[in-house]
Amino acid sequence: MNRMRISKKVAAGIAATATASLVVAGMAFSGGVASADPRELTQTYDCPYPLINIQPTKTVIKTDIPAKHPVGEPTPEFVINVEADAGLKATEGLNIVGGKTIEGTGISKVTLKGPGLDLPLDVPVVIPSNPIPANGNPLILKGITAKAPAITLPQPGTYKIDVVGLFLTMTPKKADGSPTGLGTFDSDCKLQGGMPTELATVEATGGGTTTPTTPTTPTTPTTPTTPTTPTTPTTPTTPTTPTTPTTPTTPTTPTTSTSNPGGGLIFKGDLKGSTFVKSPNGNAPLTGNIVADVDLATGNYTADLVLNPTVGDMNILGFLPTKVKISFEIPKKTVGVYGGTNLTAKATFITHLDEVAAFGFPIGGGPDCKTVAESTTDLKADPFDITKGGKLVGGYTLAAVKGCGALNDFISAFTAGPGNTIDLDLTPTN
What we know:
The chain is mainly beta and 430 residues long. It contains two helices and 24 strands. The longest helix is centred in the N-terminal third of the chain and has 8 residues, at 88-95. Keywords: Signal.
């Protein structure tokens, strides 16, 4: 496969993955609902997802924040609403692993700056379960909510609220509610250059200078099963002594996969197994690797296949133990389809017999000893998970050989023929 890259630690997907995307959120202020002003901020982040690598994710934040707020009076907690668009590739990456819904949590990185105050805030975000649409439709996440912490403005003047970062933890799930092969993955999103960051400015009015308080840790909203319209926040009681918000743990790197310029997925995998050759009644171990370029929308792929040299144990005439040194020539691309739960592959190869030895004595082989025609095998793995792999099985026919020395016809008679099989474990390596 020219470009399919995969695995889980990946995302997710790509993928994650994710897959999935997000949110951003907000921060700090509100007077009464009647006096609050509607605020809106649109940003685009670059978010790494399993399978599909870095994808642009658009977020739209909406909330009500007053233009003015009295000095020395704590602001109440208030609700922030977010909608996110993770794009077409997020949909394709999640569908290819059998995802039907996606949910998660996040941290919106916010700063509050003004006279006597320069405060970074980590605002928890809840992403409720959202359906994953059919391919051809962007992944839109709705019902995302956050609650901003209470803040006390210490001095009169203008305070600026900026949204500067986003960290996500996402879980795509199958129709039965179980996680996909991507599991739960993290995505440390980076704001694209030139994006606006200002959500609001607030004028602190009246009063003298007060000692600024550290914001309370915002209440993490309960994850709803389906997106709901958030209720209007109530006015809080007298605030208790706030605690310093905790810093989120260092994000784990999601399964990174290389996306092609055209949007494909690069999958890399190791092959290990064996082949049975019917005519000489023998077996040979097989190892190799494959690099595939997968079209996420259709599952079609092309791949570069490598089969390593090996040594087979054969029994010519049913009793003559023979060791055969074998190598493979791959004349064309391997092609196939990943169907979400299964994989097909059509591979073509020419078999070289580098040495044929009976009872330890060479009787043929050499650099020119090979089959006179290509062999084609139709392999299938069912089940197959692109993040975990699977077992490929298939059959093939060996053509007659040429260039094998004085005993060429003897060797050919006991190697050529149908009924041969291949059994390979394909394990993702990226």
